[in-house]
Amino acid sequence: MNRTPLSYIFVALFSAALALQPADVACTKSTANAVVTASSGDVAADDIGVAQSSSTKNNATLFEEKWNQIKQMSCPKQIPNPSIWPVLFEQARIELGFDMETIPNTPKDLDFITNFFTFCNGGVGYTSSDEEHHLVYLKIWKAANDHIRKNIGRVVARKKDMWEFEIPMNVYSNENRNYSGLWSPIPLSKRNQTCVVTAVRDPVEHFLSAYNEIEFRSTDSFLRSHGVKDHKKQQLYYERYENGTDARFERYVSEFIFGASSTGLFPSRPVYSNIFHAFSQTGVLWLLKQQKDLTGVNSPRLVAYLPSIYNVSATFPNLIKTNCPGFELEFGRPFSKKFDHPSQKDQNGFYAAAKRVWSKQGATSRALCALHLMDYACFDLIPIPDLCQDVFSDASFNDRLLTQPSTTPPTSHQGSKETMTSACNFCEGGIVDPELLVPKTGGLTCVQVKAAATKEVNGTATCRTVQKEEEECCPTKRVGDSHA
Q1: pLDDT per position in the chain (484 positions), as tens?
Q2: How far apart are CA 144 and CA 43, in angstroms?
């Protein structure tokens, strides 16, 4: 295929573009009156109630002195800082006693870390009867997602005005995930008015529940029931341990943290056992951050979230009624139908083993705390367990966290002293049509051109070349604007 020199520039830029860097976007968390206090009654699917704890302890003063600073560094305004991601895996490995010189740093293992913090399966959307309001629930696996999603489908009055979007389970790279189908039913001019909500749970609880789900989905009975044939695969090391034993779970966590690609945990085989269940809940925030990068002022933001899935049948409808105008009638009462996962029966004892290991408060538990610091920082309405407070107060861990840059370190072509704060500006006020194909770029869309621009530095010849395409992607830009 013949390409002009201009297209070579864009293809080279886009192929080099990795994860986008955090922008200064304000995302609000739910206020106290937006969350119904848990009471007796329905306990949502997947609720296990193990890692909850008071956030006070003997060294509370030491913890509080550092936590606000760490939280601001890790997740400012609910925007995950990707430079923190590898530090959390490093600390988890230290807690498990690994020789750091033996840790695999293959591209696939590094990609796994990115996947852990960026995965989001998609969401469910709904348009109000007057077409003036839009609601989007962002799904988080193992946070009552099945229960919430199916109940939304039951209570909405007009099924034709509801849509569901999800990323296929066999898409293993964040760069290959396209979420445009989640937002496309909403006019671009109204996306920043969309009521975006989600539900999270204690991060350690979330991981334990996910482990149980992963193991359950790997059993012969589950695979046969889903028509999976010839699923024999090479036995992973943790699978040599007996089902439902503490040692099996401890080994799984070790392989997960050591390097899931090198140990064979990632990608999942078979795909139904999907390891994505255990990934960070902050992936929904990364999705919103990417939308901000792509559409600027027109981007949606997180309006409110549930910090617990306890009594979710009452708390989730109340969350919508309180925060989302236009949907009060349909979400004015608790959900009446309960949806459970078959894995909750825990017939093989996977879940019980995971809970026992956590209750020991040993190295595996400490590693899980370190791994999930980002979740606690981004969703700060969740109480932090005492053990995790102790891990987060570790002096050497603090030093490594607080010396990280506020954004991902620059790529090699930018020079060691260049930072992403001077990234090439492109359509900062938003893109009119994100899917528009830009002429002479080898078939790139406006969204892809903007992604490429973030890897360049303002003022360079390449940046100026890219910025010329603003005439195509954001023609409403004011005449005379400069890119100083």
Answers
A1: 444 445 445 544 544 432 333 333 333 333 333 333 333 334 444 444 444 444 444 567 678 878 999 999 999 999 999 999 999 999 999 999 999 999 988 899 999 999 999 999 999 999 998 899 999 999 999 999 999 999 999 999 888 999 999 887 666 666 678 888 899 999 999 999 999 999 999 999 999 999 999 999 888 777 777 677 666 567 889 999 999 999 999 999 999 999 999 998 988 766 666 899 999 999 999 999 999 998 888 899 999 999 999 999 999 999 999 999 999 999 999 999 888 888 888 999 999 999 999 999 999 999 999 999 999 999 999 999 999 999 999 999 999 998 887 655 333 333 333 333 357 888 876 676 677 778 877 677 787 788 777 667 676 777 778 888 887 787 654 333 433 3
A2: 10
Task: Give CA–CA dist 259/255, Å, rounded.
Answer: 6
| Nearest alpha-carbon partner for 371 in 50, 6, 92 | 92
Cβ neighbours for 99, distance < 8 A, ≥ 6 positions apart: none
**Adjacency order of strands within the sheet including 195-199:** 162-166, 122-127, 134-138, 195-199, 302-306
Beta bridge mates, 305? 198
Q: In this structure, are residues 335 and 152 in contact, taking their beta carbons and an 8 Å threshold?
A: no
What are the phi and psi torsion angles at 473 (to 5°)?
A: -90, -30
Cα 467 from Cα 370, distance rounded (Å): 41
Q: What is the dihedral of CA 402, 403, 408, 410, to 10 degrees?
A: 170
E strands in 72-181: 122-127, 134-138, 162-166
Backbone angles phi, psi at 241, to 5 degrees: -85, 150
Per the CB < 8 A criterion, the answer to whether 56 and 384 are in contact is no
Q: Residue 249 in contact with residue 363, Cβ under 8 Å?
A: no
For 147, the token pair is 């229960």
